[in-house]
Amino acid sequence: MLENLTQRLAKVMKTIRGEARLTESNVADALREVRVALLEADVALPVVRDFIARVKEKALGEEVVGSLTPGQALVGVVASVAGLDAPYRELSMLALALASWRLTAPELRRENRFGFHPILEVAVVFAGVFATMVPALDILRAEAPALGIREPWHFFWATGALSSFLDNAPTYLVFLAVARGAGLAPEVAGVSHAVLVGISLGAVFMGANTYIGNGPNFMVRSIAEERGVPMPSFGGYMLVSGAVLLPLFALVTLVFLV
Question: Pseudo-torsion of CA 48, 14, 97, 35, nearest 10°?
Answer without folding.
Answer: 0
